[in-house]
Design brief:
The complex is a heterodimer of chains A (about 90) and B (about 800).
Chain A lengths: L1 E9 L3 H13 L3 E7 L2 E8 L2 H13 L3 E11 L17
Antiparallel strand pairs in A: 1-3, 1-4, 2-3
Chain B lengths: L2 H19 L24 H4 L4 E6 L8 E7 L2 E7 L12 H4 L15 E4 L2 E4 L2 H14 L4 E5 L5 H14 L5 E3 L6 H11 L9 H5 L2 E5 L3 H4 L1 H12 L5 E6 L11 E4 L5 H14 L5 H7 E5 L9 E3 L1 H9 L3 H8 L3 H11 L6 E5 L1 H4 L4 H15 L8 E4 L6 H8 L5 E2 L3 E2 L3 H10 L15 H8 L11 E5 L3 H4 L3 H4 L10 E6 L11 E4 L8 E4 L4 E5 L12 H14 L16 E2 L5 E2 L12 H10 L12 H6 L3 E2 L3 E2 L5 E2 L31 E5 L15 E6 L15 H6 L5 E3 L1 H6 L7 E5 L4 E8 L9 E5 L27 E9 L3
The chains are: A alpha+beta (about 90), B alpha/beta (about 800).
Amino acid sequence: MAISGLAILLSPEPEQRDSALQALQEHPQLELGPSNGDRISAVLDTPDTHQDRRAFRQLEKLSGVLRVDLVCVYLDEEPTDAPSVPSGADHE
Amino acid sequence: MSDLDRRQFMHSSALLAAAAAIGATPGIDPRTGQGLPVPGLAGKNLAEAAPGISWQKAPCRFCGTGCHIMVGTQGGKVVAVAGDRQAEVNKGLLCVKGYSIGQILYGKDRLTQPLLRKGGKLVPISWKEALDTIASRIQAAPKEFAFYGSGQWTIPEGYSAQKFMKGGLSNNHIEPNARLCMASAVTGFLATYGVDEPAGCYDDLDRADVVIFWGNNMAEMHPVLFSRIIDRRATGAKIRLIDIGTRRTRTTEHCQHFLNFNPHSDLAIANGIAHLLIKNNTYDKIFVEKFLAFRKDGAKPSLFGKATTFEDYKRHVAEYTPEHVEKISGVPAKDIYLLGRLFGDPKLRITSTWCMGMNQHTRGTAINSLVHGVHLLSGHFGKPGDAPTSLTGQPSACGTVREVGTLAHALPGGRIVKKAAHRKHAEKYWNLPAGRVSPKPGYHTVKMWERFCTSKAKGGDINTIWVQVTNPGQSLPNLNKLFLGKKGLSEKFLIVSDVYPTATTKLADLVLPSALWVEKNGVVGNSERRTQQWFRQVKPPGKARDDTWQTIAVAHRLYQRGFAGMKDKDGKFLFEMKDDKGKPVPVWDFGRYYDVNVDQQLFEEYRQFTRLKHKDLAPYTEYVKARGLRWPVVKQANGTWRETRWRFSEFDDPYVKKGSRIQFYHSSSKNDRAQMWIRPYENPPEMPDAKYPLWLCTGRVLEHWHTATMTGRVPALANAMPSTYVELNPVDARRYGISNGDQVRIKSRRGQLDLRAWIQGRGEPPAGSLFVPWFDEKRLINLVTLHLYDPISKQPDYKKCAVSITRLGPGK
C-alpha cells in the first residue's frame, strides 16, 4: 500500500487547466482535495510503491499540469535495500 | 486499528499534509495559538484534527533554504509537522523531506549512550569516562587536537567550539564540512565585495524576469525556493529560466533554455558574456565608472591579486567570442549571444543562483568571481530581482561557518587570526589575556584529514579529531586517502558526536550520543542572511545530550584539571553562565544545563562580534518573536529592529552613504568599489583519457539529505530512493554494452565502486559523462572522487574527475 499526498500546480491557461482538472478528477487512484489558486492538493492511493511512482510520472506528463510536488508518502513496506533502482520499464 | 481504519487515517493525513503544503491549511493563528480552518475538510482545523498537540515554530533541519515548520508535540514526542504560513521563506510550503522531518528523531538505532572502543569493539561507558577520555587526549597534546564540525552546527554550537579551540586551546585546527560545500562561494564574495555573503535575498526570486541556474538543480536541492519561481509562472508572470549545467535534471524540465557545457568550462561562458557586453557596448557605464575596480591574479592566485585597468580587462575578454566559447564549452554560440543580449538589456531583472556546481570546482573562486562580475559589469545588481545569489546546502552554513567563522583561519564576525587587531577583539570579548589567540591558521579540511591519516613518524601531526554534526567518513573526497588511512594508526583517536551510527562511527574510538533538532535549543542562519531561532520541544533519548553541552563539559573537565586555557584573564571558567541574579550556574552538569538559556547567553556574547563587518544581529529575544531576520538588523529610533533585504543599495541598506546609490563599504580596494576579476579559462587538473575515458560528477537527490543518516531512517524516503546508482547516457550504455539495471564498476585513479546502471533515469548526463548520488553509505562514491582543491578556497572538486566504467553482469 502506498498513499502519497501531492501538491499539483495547474496551468493558469483556462483551457489547459480545465482539461487537466478533468483528467485528474477521472483518475481512478486520485482523490482531489482543497485548492489554493492554481495549486490543488490530492491523494494518490495505489497498491505499492512501483504503481505509485508510475502514476506519479503519468500525472507529471498530463497536459495542463505544470508541476507535481510529493508532499508525503505513507507505505506499509519497510525500507528495503533492493532493488537499487527500479526496473527500466518504470522509467520509460 | 483495523486495516481499513488505518488506510483511511493515512489517506486523510496525506490529504491534510498536501492541503497544508499548498497553503490551503493555514496552520496556526498567531493571535490565538489555535489552528485555523482547513478549507474542504468540513471546517476542521489542525487543533481539532489532532487535539492535545502543542505547536511551536522551528526552522527545518535540512538544507540552507531555511523553511519554517510548525512542530506538533504530544506526550514528549514530535507527532506532527506543518508548513509555517507566517514564514516568509516558505509561506507554509514544505518539501518531501520537510514533511518527514519529525521521523528523523525516531530511527530504531538512535545512539543513546557514550561508546568507547575497547578490544576492537565499541562498548557502553559513562559520560564521566567519556569526558575524562577526551580531556586526557587534549591535555596530552593540545596542539595535535582538531575539531571538525559543519554547517549543521547551530550558531551557539559553532561559537562554543570556536571559543573552546581558539580562545581555550590557542589552537586553530577547527574546520567545518562546509569547506567541502561553500568555501568557494565565500572566497568569491570576499574577492569581489571584500566581505562575505549575498547582497540580495530570496525576494529577488519573486521579482526577476530571468533566473539563471549556474550548475544548480534547484528543483531537487532547494525545492521550496524553486516552487516560488514556478508559482509565479503559474500566475501568469513571464519568467525566462535558463539552466547552465553539465547534466539534464528536474530543473532543466522547467527551463526554456538548457546550456549543456563541458565540465569546467563555465569560466569561458562567463567571460563570453562579458565579451559581448563590451563588444555591444551594453555594459553599465555608471557601474564601471563609479562602482568597479579591476583586478587580476599575480604569480600565485589569491583573494586580493593586483590592481589593473578596464582596458586590460577588455583585452582579456576580447578572445572570448561566442564562437571561441563554443569550442571550449560545447555550448552553441547562439546561446552565448542570448546570454549577452539578456545581460545587455537594462530593463530586465536577472537573478543568478548557484550552489555546489560552481563551488566544488578547482577554479571555484574564479567562477564565483566571474559570475559576480557579469552582474556588476551589466549593472544587474542592487535592485530587487537583480542579484547574484549563492545558495547553501546546510541550515547554518552561513550563520555558523561563515559568520561565527568556524574555519581554520577565521575568528567570529568576519575576522581572521592573522590580523593582530582581530585577535585583540576576540581576546577582549572573551576576556582573555593578550596573546591567547594564535596568529597561525590551522589546517584546512583536506590537510587536517591528510595529517590525521598519516603516522606521526611521517609528519602526521594531528592525533585526535573530534567530529560533531557531520559524517566525514562518507563525505570527504578520496576516502582511501583522507579517512580510511586512519586504519592501523594506533596513535590516532577519533571522537564522533552523532545521532545515529554512520560511516564515520565505524572508525571512531569514542562515540557520543547527541541531541537532534528540536531536542535542543538552536539558532541558525540561512542562505539569505536570515538568523532563525527555536526552543527545545522534546527531550533527547537515553543519555543523548546537546553538542554545546558536550563542548562545555569537556572544557570544564580541563578547567578542573587546571588547564590554563580554560580560564579567562580573571581566572574564571571560559564558559561561565549566570542566572538572572548573576549567580554562576554549573551548566556542565547536564541536569542543570537548562536551568538557564545557554544558547541565549552565548548568542549575546557572540553578537558583539557582528558589527565590525556590518552583519549586526538583534538581541536573541527579537529572534524568538520572528521567523528569522536578515542582517544587518539595525535598531530604529522607535526602538524596533529593522532587517535589511538588499545590502550595498542605498534604498535599503542603512550603512550606505546617502546619495551614493551603491556603496561597497567593505571594498578590498578601499574605495567603495567591487572588484572585477580577470580570470581566464584553464583546463581542469584531471581530464578523461584513454584509461579513464569518462567524466564523473557526483551530487544529491530530492529524497535524501547529504549522507542520508537522517533521511535514510524515514521509511517513506528510504523506500522512495533506497540506494545509489550511476546515471549514464544511452550512447555510453551502447558503447559499453550496459543495460538498465546492470551491475557496473566505476573506477578512478583513487578507487572503485560497484553500482547499478540507470539509463535515462531521473537526470540525464550527456554522452561521455556519468552521475552518481553520494547519499548511500553502503556504496561510497567518494572512494572514487578527487581530493584536489581550489587554490584559494581549498574546496575540493567533487563535480569532475576521470573514470572508467565496466559492465560486471546483470542486476540482481
